[in-house]
Design goal:
- The chain has about 475 residues and is α/β, with parallel strands linked by helices.
- Helix content is about 35%, strand content about 15%.
- The protein is built from 20 helices and 15 strands.
- The termini are far apart.
């Protein structure tokens, strides 16, 4: 097993560089919040135009003509023709609206940079590292939050000052994809509920068949490593306020035992990754992992488990002849006797505020059709956006698990989480380098997890001092 050298392997791009176009700590809360708040409440319905919630797809504006460019992170659905199928179905209702997709692989980084130009396209998936206070600088306000929050799950995910700028494409429950046959063959009869139980199960898989990778990190893809951050909020704490309200005002949030026990809280999440790598319970050489290749490998039983959101279930099922072998389990952390799972919006649809009025209307109609009529969320194995829709069978293991959605911060703290993360250079759920460091340390043995956490906490504490209200 060779040592990993980030300088030779990883070219760091985008998130921190693109931050120059976004707010630094405290940089835009005053100037942007005012303009966003003053226009958002009424713009969607200005000049007699209907807001998103008022549109009736298939009835309103069926003669509308528009050519839309849609920028998406789902390169797989572009390449396999899935999105073409959605467009064809939509065009049965709106034959004069054409929609062309453009896919970006390194989406969060590249799209954040492109947003600084006004002509990037007409609609896109809103990058998650854009501060809420800056949504109105790039995206059209679609409706008031109060108009859809009773009907839509995760409606507040890309809302600010009471206005919605992004409609969730689907919801993710944060768990672990696993091969049920592999677990059964290794003698695992109950799903793990704690970090050590999960690590013990990975060891059972290795002992059963050393040719199987018990846990596959997908390190080489880079972006896949950000998945680990998603488990540090409600799933690890049981607290919907943790990510957006509590953590940005808390010193040493990554410290072992921050919530009173070592096997819960953010530390416990990274502990699983670090220990799995250190104990040889992952692939032999993370620099050679293959994202596309991992899909058929877990499908046919060469991989035991992968830490990814529920969005990935369908991809793993479709990658071979053993779809029924793919299962999805809650993340193995139990908080004071209760097992939780973080749940939240996947990327949200956003409309370019600088495009034409006809294109804005066409984009809203397509978004509403995707959300309410296409069955996209269900087909992708996700938590449904409409509260009236059914959960897919892939999430049956979550019956009885308390789903925790991150609560939005109050207006005066709306951008605090992003500001602290940018200041600390720890962009959770967006930048992969800090998680990759955990893998590197587990392999190289040159840092302990406690060493890494000490660095993270030092940077975080300074950011809290600089950004959080005193």
């Amino acid at each position: 097993m060779r040592k990993i050298n980030r300088r030779n392997f990883l070219k760091v791009t985008g998130v921190l560089a693109a931050a120059s176009a976004l707010a630094a700590c405290g940089g835009s809360s005053t100037s942007t919040a005012g303009s966003t708040g003053s226009t958002a409440g009424s713009a969607a319905g200005a000049d007699g135009a209907k807001a998103y919630n008022e549109l009736t797809v298939g009835t309103d504006n069926t003669d509308l003509k528009a050519d839309l460019k849609f920028v998406s992170h789902r390169t797989d659905l572009i390449e396999d023709g899935t999105f073409d199928g959605y467009v064809a179905a939509f065009q049965k209702l709106y034959p004069n609206i054409t929609i062309k997709y453009e896919g970006i692989t390194d989406y969060a980084n590249d799209m954040t940079t492109r947003l600084t130009s006004n002509d990037w396209g007409d609609l896109c998936m809103i990058p998650t590292n854009i501060p809420l206070t800056e949504l109105g600088d790039y995206f059209e306000p679609l409706c008031a939050l109060s108009d859809i929050e009773n009907d839509y799950n995760f409606a507040s995910n890309r809302a600010y000052n009471g206005s919605v700028y992004g409609i969730p494409s689907t919801g993710n429950a944060q768990g672990i994809i696993y091969n049920k046959k592999v677990f059964e063959a290794a003698g695992i009869t109950t799903l793990p509920k704690t970090p050590d139980e999960f690590l013990d199960d990975l060891q059972k898989i290795k002992d059963y068949d050393p040719s199987i990778d018990p846990l596959y990190t997908n390190y080489a893809a880079g972006w896949t490593m950000t998945a680990w951050d998603a488990y540090t909020s409600g799933g690890a704490t049981g607290d919907p306020d943790w990510m957006n309200i509590t953590m940005p005002q808390t010193k040493d949030p990554f410290q072992k035992g921050i919530l009173g026990a070592d096997d819960m809280g953010p530390y416990a999440v990274y502990y699983i990754l670090y220990e799995a790598v250190k104990r040889g319970l992952t692939e032999a050489d993370p620099t050679t992992t293959d994202w596309e290749g991992s899909k058929p490998r877990i499908n046919n039983g060469q991989i035991g488990a992968m830490v990814l959101g529920s969005w990935a279930i369908v991809q793993m099922q479709a990658a071979g002849d053993h779809a029924d072998d793919i299962g999805y389990m809650p993340f193995p952390i139990t908080v004071k006797g209760t097992q939780y799972a973080s749940a939240g919006a996947d990327y949200c649809y956003g409309v370019n505020k600088n495009t034409t009025d006809d294109k804005k209307l066409a984009a809203m109609l397509y978004i509403k059709w995707l959300t309410e009529s296409s069955n996209f969320a269900y087909d992708q194995g996700g938590v449904p956006v409409l509260k009236s829709q059914e959960y897919p069978d892939t999430l049956k293991a979550f019956d009885g698990i308390d789903l925790v959605e991150d609560a939005p911060a109050p207006a005066e703290l709306a951008d605090l989480a992003t500001e602290v993360q940018q200041e600390a250079e720890l962009m959770l759920n967006a930048d992969q380098t800090h998680v990759m460091r955990v893998v590197e340390a587990g392999i190289n043995g040159d840092e302990t997890l406690d060493d890494i956490v000490a660095d993270w906490n030092a940077a975080w504490n300074k950011a809290v001092d600089d950004c959080a209200p005193q």
